Amino acid sequence: MGGLISTMRLNNSKGKMIRVEGEQMKIVALGDSITEGYPFSPQESWVEYATRKLKIEIVNQGINGDFTQGMLERFPRDVISYNPTHVIILGGANDAYEGLPLSRVSANFSAMVEKCSHYGIIPILGLSTPSLLSSEEKFLAEYRNWLKDYANREKMVVIDFYTPFQRAIQAGGADKLYVDEVHPSIEGYRMMGETAVQRLDAIQPRGKWF
Fold first, then answer.
1. How large is the average pLDDT for residues 111-117?
2. pTM above the 0.85 mark?
3. From the CA atom positions of the chain, what is the Rg in Å?
4. Of all helices (H) and strands (E), which one includes residue 59?
5. Nearest Cα to 40, choosing from 185, 137, 180?
């Protein structure tokens, strides 16, 4: 870890920032309360778990109650200004709670990925954990399906937080994973952290994130 700032150079032919080989990996985790670690502190979040396990720098930029529109608006301040190599984008729970249509939410995700492309940041898309509220889960399922298709088309990495939770719920383990209908328990955040670690390790061996 150690907080090294990534070095970048400008590709004049396309006007985009390009990462320089050999820089140290640095991740920003952008999201809502489920990234922040609510109702606990960021020290109990999945982000902190992954930071400790992987021994890399992951900046927690989860804000309780935020929407994907808010994540897009603060992207320059909360992501670009940190000059990360990667950003994990995990959002949509509050959009789904308010019943926002896929067209609006997908546009926000697409715009954040476009910013990543311009600044040479590698985007990693997170698939949100299940909501125990059927009305909210209906919208989250639409968002997830779109994200999977989008990531496949654009060849982006996905961290699937949904599937391990869904399997545990089907096995009767919801009470252990949630403190309410939406937010994970300490055990739930640990499961999210383990999922993130496994996916990030599968992308590249530790210490070789260039």
1. 98
2. yes
3. 16
4. strand 57-62
5. 185
